[in-house]
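Write out the 3D structure for:
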Amino acid sequence: MLRRAFGTDLLRLAGLGGAFACLLCPAALAQSADFIAPRLELSEAGIFCPIPSAGTAPAPGTESGVINLIDGDHRVALHDHRVPAHIGLSFGIRIRLAPGAPPGPYSVVLTHPPVGPRAVTREVWNAEIGTDYGVRLFEFEFDRELRPGAWVFEITDGTTTYLRQSFEVVPPRQAPAAIDLCFGQQLLS
């Protein structure tokens, strides 16, 4: 599920009957290709423990057409770019506009392996980036979203890409630390 945070609000993208947002990028796009332009400031990137939803808002560029709202400014629980495919975990970026940067509009684009019955690989929504730090992330809510491979966030104005942050989603046993941190030791056997 993709989420967006600004000020005290955080938005997450809702998938069919739930939540997700995505954009497939080639597997060759590795963290070495990640960047951030001076227009934005990246506070952190990584894995977030579950964050409760506070409602929904329309998002026509997403598979479901809806994003979930979340209150508060949330922090990364684990600074890692290897993300276990586990229901309830989220991953993404915490960003803001740099001082003096134009207000936008900006969009979030997330690419990933095909998900769901329509094999969606790309979703786009309004980033609502401001001068306060906010989170843009994806939360695994449904089994159909648990797709290993490259997942890449980009922030763009439609012409120029200002940020690219990649993650590698892996089977849970290949990266159990986030599961243990957020849910306790569930992978004991």
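The first helix runs from residue 177 to 183.
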